[in-house]
């Protein structure tokens, strides 16, 4: 390996047994992390509204500030994963994530909650791209990796459903702040699973001239993105759709409560049921489109998912009862979010190389954060100056713009995926 230009994956395949073991370990970790993360966020989303009493503008502002910090840390974290270690980047992510989650349950003031959410956002920068890069290199089978990533996406959905039920019931039986602290401690402990069970055989870290090699890795990633029309198109779509999804996700609970969602036995019970319903729909949708999203129909499916987002946001914005609003939430969480996320991950992963894989995925995550910042600040201002339904309508406009961007006239660029 040339230590001055960056790490190279070892050109070797794991044996069938070792390969199967690594996939199982990776899927199990993906499932467990989804259990804790999504269950925690369900309880936290209600905690922020009911216990902390944050306003719609404050809810969206938290997301924007969190994304701003994550945007700054994302590329350095990706370069670290590409030059030092993907596995230990994930361990650091778990430790920071667990700390932030645990601390959230200890405060109700806006400044303190803002700080915990910022740390939570930073923790994800050490995981985004590192997980996909690690399993791609360790498996070292290009023909199988897309299937594994799709299975991982389904594992996230089933794990999320499990987390919603388990932690939702725990919060209902005890207290929301106690549940948040328990989930955070468990997430930090999950880092031990990564440290003990994950392997990193097909990655060679840089041991000399790390700063210059890191800069070279960053520049190579930028060059790849600039020259790939397909990646640029997916990046633009990610900016729009993630900005809309994140803002909508932070306003959903407030809108449903305003529509008259029953307060008995507890709002957490209703949000748990809605979350599980959306995840079940998402798992079914991903199974149905597994082959399509790996082929020529990916752009069409992305555009259709964006159109589903338009419908969901308009239904939620102008709903007259909580039932209609609930259907809209299931549509958003069951189709729009999982489908757009897995398509963008697979397409970017297929168009990068091993030595800059985590860095390129970090660029994708940066576009997600940038969308949350720009679109989040805009929608926060709309929510503050006008009404919540108008803010949700603005989310629908962003989804519509995404559908136009991924329309058939751009399909050829995405399908080709060649460097210009």
Automatic annotation (TrEMBL):
The keyword Nucleus does not apply. Keywords: Membrane, Transmembrane, Transmembrane helix. InterPro entries: MFS, MFS_DHA3_Transporter, MFS_trans_sf. The chain crosses the membrane at residues 31-50, 62-81, 88-112, 118-136, 157-174, 180-198, 230-248, 268-290, 302-319, 325-350, 362-382, 388-406. Signal peptide: none annotated. The keyword Transmembrane helix applies. This is MFS transporter. It comes from the Bacteria.
